[in-house]
Amino acid sequence: MTVTKAHLTSVIQDRLDLPKIEAATLLECLLEQIKDTLVSGENILVSGFGKFCVKSKNTRRGRNPQTGDDLMLDGRRVVTFGCSPVLKEKMNCGN
Question: What is the fold, at CATH topology level, of the domain defined by 41-95?
Answer without folding.
Answer: HU Protein; Chain A (4.10.520)
